[in-house]
Amino acid sequence: MQVQLSEKKYKLKAMEMMALQSNINPHFLANTASRVMKLLFQPIIENAIYHGIKESNRFGYIKVRLRRKGDMLHITIIDTGIGMRKERLQQVRKGLHREETGGHIGIYNTYKRLQLNHGYMFSFAIFSKYGWGTVIRMEFPILTEGTEAEVWER
């Protein structure tokens, strides 16, 4: 039993490490994304592991892509997990705009934190196809010293 638990823990750790492999240039991250909210990726990557890849019963991966376009940061998180059926995807999307989260409290909290930090100057989109995986796209202004106030003045 102890060996089985250790093996399962190792598999999850390996999946988490694979999830952290990404297209992020360390210099870009150090210079640009230092103002990105803490724990922005964690709930999304955790959902991708536990509700996507783990449920698919096949090898999967998670790709995190950060791009800067002008003064905006574009983040895309792609997983090759099981994905969501149309009905479930609609429930999750609607849950972002209501207090009823439909069980996806991590995605809801991430959305609300982006809204609190960036006002309405951000976008958050979820795309998914059952059997293929899920994509989450976020765009928001790159905040530097003094720009936080500008977001709320607009």
Q: Care to describe what's here?
A:
The chain has 154 residues and is of the alpha+beta class. The chain is built from six helices and four strands; from the N terminus they run αααββααββα. The radius of gyration is 17 Å and the shape is globular.
Number of helices: 6
| Structural domain count | 1
Number of strands: 4
- Report the order of strands and helices: HHHEEHHEEH
Class derived from helix and strand content? alpha+beta
CATH architecture: 2-Layer Sandwich
CATH third-level topology? Heat Shock Protein 90
Radius of gyration: 17 Å
The percent range for helix content is 40-55%
Tags for this entry?
four-stranded antiparallel β-sheet; alpha+beta; disordered C terminus; 46% helix; Heat Shock Protein 90; 154 residues; single chain
Secondary structure topology:
Blueprint: H1 2-20, H2 26-31, H3 42-56, E1 62-69, E2 72-79, H4 86-95, H5 105-118, E3 123-129, E4 133-141, H6 147-153
Antiparallel strand pairs: 1-2, 2-4, 3-4
Briefly say what this structure is:
Residues 36-144 form the Histidine kinase/HSP90-like ATPase domain. This protein is α+β, with helices and mostly antiparallel strands and 154 residues long. It has a single domain (2-153), classed as Heat Shock Protein 90 (2-Layer Sandwich).
